[in-house]
Amino acid sequence: MSSISHRVPFNGGFLHALSSGRGDETIVLLHGWPQTCREWDRVSALLDGDYRLIAPDLRGCGDSSKPIAGYDASTQADDVLALVQHFGLGRVHLVGHDVGGPVAYAFAAKHRDLCGSLTLIEAPLWGIVSDDVPDLATQFWHLKFHQDVDMAAKMIGADIPAYLHHFYRHFAFNPNAITPNDVAEYIRAYSGFGALRASLMHYHAIPETGEQLKELNAQKLTIPVASYGSAMVMADYAGNVARLVAENVDAGIVENCGHWMPEEKPEFVADLIRKTVAKARAA
Fold first, then answer.
1. Minimal CA–CA distance to 166: which of 135, 187, 191, 195?
2. pLDDT below 70 — which residues of the chain?
3. Can 98 be counted among the known catalytic residues?
4. Domain ranges of the chain
C-alpha cells in the first residue's frame, strides 16, 4: 500500500493526513491515544483496493499542529469538516478508535448530510450514560490523571517510552500486536516539542466534550452505526452506549482481543467497515 502525505489547513493550524486507495466511497479513519494515523496501516492495506482512505493525525498528535485549545469533540469535528472540504468530498464514512470515537460521533451528529455511516472501535462516548452505561471517565485510572495535563506531562515526560510501552502491552490481548517499529514511531511522535502535553489535552477536554455529546444526542443518528468493544477492555459498553445515540446499531464483543483492535484484529475491523459502508449504500 502506498500513501500520500498531506497538510490540510484548519482554523489555527493544519492536520497531517495520509491518503490512499481509490473508489466511489471515502472512509475517514480517526486514531486513538497514544497512537497516530499509522495505527490504521494494516486495516488500510485490506481496504485500499475498494475505497478512498484518509487517515489524519488528530490535532495535537503525530505531525499535526499542536494548538493550545480546541480539543473538544465539536471543534475537532470541524477539523474533520475542513479535511472533507479540502479533498472536495461529499458524503464520507467515519471510523473512530479510542479518543477518535467521540470526534467521529460529533462529526456524524453535527454534519448529518456528510456522514454516510459511523464505525466505533473501542470508543468512549463521554457524557453519554444510563443505568447500563457507566461514565467511562471514572472506570480507568489514567483518564483522570491525564486531565491534570501539566502534572501528567511532567511525570510521563520523565520516561515516555516506558509509559507508552505500559499501555501497548497492558491493554492488549496480544502484547506483540504493536510492533517495535510501530512503537518507535509513536515514541518519536509523542516526544517532540509540546507533543505530549498537546496529546493530553484530549483528556482535559473530556468534561466539555461530555456536555457537547449530550446536546448532540437530542436527535439520535439514523445512519448505520457499528460499535464493537474488545472482550478484554470495553466489552458490552461499546454496544450499549451506541444504542443510546443511534437507532440503527450493529454491536458486539470481539473475543481474544484487547484495546488495539486495528492491530490485533485488522481483518475483523476491515470487514466491519465494509459491512457498515454496504448498509449505507443499500439505504
1. 187
2. 1
3. yes
4. 4-282
